[in-house]
């Protein structure tokens, strides 16, 4: 009799817990939609909520493992929490095409003393984090980031440059369907410059080219390639030159939901790439070497738009394979 009573009590507790859990998720879902301005049809909302709940489960499981020392980074909910990693890669990861091999090769300065830590975002070289929206234009954002840094290095003025200019006018690239920073730098050189963000604002979709020579914010004379796969050469370039444009494999679910810590993802493929980003520094965090990387997915993602990616881990995610910076 006592056993039956306890069994009923346990069942009641679990049922009550389940209702509380569902109420909590309802509240969290409503907050998620409100914070990120999500609007769905009824059928679409049911599907998106299921994906969102699966991502919550991934986050919870991963972070419990991180608490037990199994991971060096944590995951968290962001504006992409209602999407699968495959959807993310198809929509946002737009680094595509064959590399252009017509840049010069990086040669480090003689007697270069490498500092332990570099962060060009604290030195005036880096504009605030931008958001490419639902467009595979990462290649344009990493391009402008690299040129913004070199323009600042030369002139002492930080000018936000127009990704929309590249999206509309860089014919060798494919707009929201992808492209490469090398081809974008080639366009800027041949075009005689790129307009400012202010004069040619971002729309997140390809439009008719509206470049105006009178609104040029920066020019470039070409680009320099860092030896492919060489993380020491990349470190020397970051330390001596400034922000560096790179292409990486960002297709893993863990990248989509990254929140903080040193991103160490063994499933990354070092010989493929699908996303272009900007290295703005490097350092060591809790004993792990990292690259400090600026993304173009807004500030709700990662560490206010940044990620610390593993450094000296066999070129993880292929981060050193396609490293370039513009000459000005």
From TrEMBL:
Pfam short name (any one): Inhibitor_I29
GO biological process terms on file = proteolysis
Q: Show where the Cathepsin propeptide inhibitor domain sits.
A: 29-88
Q: Which InterPro entries match?
A: Papain-like_cys_pep_sf, Pept_asp_AS, Pept_cys_AS, Peptidase_C1A, Peptidase_C1A_C, Peptidase_C1A_papain-like, Prot_inhib_I29
Question: Which SUPFAM superfamilies does the record match to this protein?
Answer: Cysteine proteinases (SSF54001)
Q: Does the keyword Hydrolase apply?
A: yes
Would you say which domain of life the source belongs to?
A: Eukaryota
Q: Which UniProt keywords apply?
A: Disulfide bond, Hydrolase, Protease, Signal, Thiol protease, Zymogen
Question: From which residue to which does the signal peptide run?
Answer: 1-18
| Stored Gene3D superfamilies | Cysteine proteinases
Does the record's keyword annotation contain Protease? Answer: yes
Query: Which positions fall inside the Peptidase C1A papain C-terminal domain?
Result: 114-327
Q: Which GO terms describe its molecular function?
A: cysteine-type peptidase activity
Q: Which PANTHER family match?
A: CYSTEINE PROTEASE FAMILY C1-RELATED
For this chain, the family text in UniProt reads: Belongs to the peptidase C1 family.
Q: What is this protein called?
A: Cathepsin L
Q: Which species does this protein come from?
A: Magallana gigas
